[in-house]
Amino acid sequence: MNDTASDDAADQSALVDNSFADELCTYIAQQIVRDSTATVAPDTDLLLSGLVDSLGVVLIVEWIEQRLGTVIDAGDVVIEHFQTPDAIVAYLRDASPNPSLDP
Q: Which of 14, 38, 47, 66 has a Cα-to-Cα distance from 91 of 20 to 30 A?
């Protein structure tokens, strides 16, 4: 990874803070789950619980890409990265900001 990519990764990691995690949980609860009785906490199992289906995952990815100005590689959209909001945040903190553009 070159210096610019390292700087971009650091910038993205700074954007993915606790307020981002809260925004993510709120977005999922209000726009994806749409169940007024459902609570989405950082450790809520989104996929195996049935709260979020495959279309919901696509919408979450789109929201993240727009919110952070990044591109998420389709190969990274796996259960390990998207099972819970905590897993999503951990993935984003570790991920390169534009994996498809890395040299």
A: 38
Rounded to whole angstroms, the Cα distance separating 7 from 74 reads 23
Cα–Cα distance measured from residue 55 to residue 28, given in angstroms and rounded to the nearest whole number: 12
Q: How many residues does the chain have?
A: 103
The domain 3-101: what is its CATH number? 1.10.1200.10
In whole angstroms, what is the distance from residue 11 CA to residue 22 CA?
A: 19
Give 32-71 pLDDT, tens digit per residue: 997 878 889 999 999 999 999 999 999 999 999 999 999 9
Read off the pTM.
Answer: 0.78
